[in-house]
Amino acid sequence: MSTPRLTKHRLAGALGDILVDVRAGSRADSAPAVVILHGFKGFKDWGMFPPLAERLARAGFSTVSYNASGSGVDDTGAFAHPERFGRNTFTAELHDLGIVLDELVQGGLDLPPPTTTALVGHSRGGGIAILHAAWDSRIGALVTWAAISSVERWSADVQRRWRETGSLEVKNQRTGEVLPLHTDILDDLETNRTSLDVEAHAARITTPWLIIHGAEDETVPVIEAKKLHAVAPAAELLLVEGTGHTFGAAHPFQGMTPALEQVYDRTTRFIIGHVA
Length: 276
What we know:
The protein has nine helices and ten strands. By secondary structure, it is α/β, with parallel strands linked by helices.
C-alpha cells in the first residue's frame, strides 16, 4: 500500500467554507471511501481524528474528514468564526454532509468517484450520519461513535431562558473561550422535528451499522446507544468498558489508549468487511 498523501480543499457550505482533508494512497483508480464527521465543538483535526484518517487511508480507503461550515473552526484548530458557530444548526450540518458526499461521488476532491462510501460519525456527527444514512443508498456502511439518539439536548427551562436572552453561552473546555449559541438551532428543532428525529431514522437504516459507545460516557450517556440499538436491532453494538466520550483521547493527541485502539481496530475491520 502506498503512503497516503494529504490534500486540502474548500467547498461552499451552509454557513461558509467547508474545510476538507483528503488522505489517500494511489489516486489513479477508484477505491472505497470513508467520510469522518466530527461532533459539537469538534473539528477534523481534533485529537483522535487525524490518526483515524491516516489508519483508514493506509488500509486502502480514500479518507475524507472535514470541518462543517458551522463549526467555527479554521484550519489551525482555532475558533476563528464564532458567528458561524453561533448560527449553526443540525439542518446546516446535514446540508454540508450532502455537499461533501456529492463532491466526492462526482469525482471531485482530487479523487476518482469511489466504489462505495462509509460514514464514521462521532457524537453529534454520529446523529447527523444516522439522519443521512437512513435515505442515501450511496452509503455502504455506517459506524457511529458515542452518537446522540436525539437532537433534543436542552431542557424546556433552558430553552425558555435561551429565548429570553437571545443566546446560550457555551464554554469550550479546550480553550476556555465562551461562545454564544444563538436561537437558530432552536428554530431548526421546532421547524424540522420530523426530519431531525434520530431514532425514527435509525429504525429505517438497512445499511450495515456498527454502534460504538464508551460505557462510562458522561457527555452522551450509554443509554442513548442502547436506544439506537433497540430500534435498529440488526446493527452491531459494541460497548467499550472503562472509557468515556472520546475513548481516552485528548487534544492535542497524546497517543493511543487501549480503548481507542479497540475502537480503531473494530471500526477498520467493520468497514473492510462491508465496503472494501
